[in-house]
Amino acid sequence: MALSSSQIRYLRSLAHDLSPVILLGNKGASDAVVKELGLALSQHELVKVKLSGGDKEEREAQIDTLTSGTEAETIHKIGHVVVLFRRNVDEPKIALPR
To answer: How would you class 33 by CB atoms within 10 Å of its CB: exposed for 0-12, middle for 13-18, buried for 19 or more?
Structure first.
């Protein structure tokens, strides 16, 4: 599902007050973390993730692992924090603008 720019802006505004739900440790984005993130996305739809330390390329690799493993979309990333969104098809919780 491709999001429009107005939908992305709306989701960014919702994510502003969120606390990170997933905190990555030294091992980075492991299979267990991807599974846990999938459960969090199913429940919340919009999730903030705090990435582990490292350089920019390492953080980009972690984001790619998380998004490909959960089929989520990157809404916003700044520093060591990324916001991911995946629509819950059965019970949508966030009403997106057109």
So the answer is: buried
Q: d(Cα 8, Cα 18) in Å, to the nearest integer?
A: 15
> Inter-axis angle of helices 31-44 and 56-70, to 10 degrees?
60
User: Collapsing DSSP states into helix, strand and coil, what is residue 60?
Assistant: helix
Q: Is there a contact between 46 and 58 (Cβ–Cβ < 8 Å)?
A: no
Does residue 88 have a pLDDT over 70?
Answer: yes
Query: What domains does the chain contain, in order, with CATH numbers?
Result: 5-85 (3.30.110.60)
| pTM score, whole prediction | 0.93
pLDDT digits (tens, 9 = 90+) for 54-67: 889 999 999 999 99
The strand order across the sheet containing 73-78 reads 22-23, 46-50, 81-85, 73-78
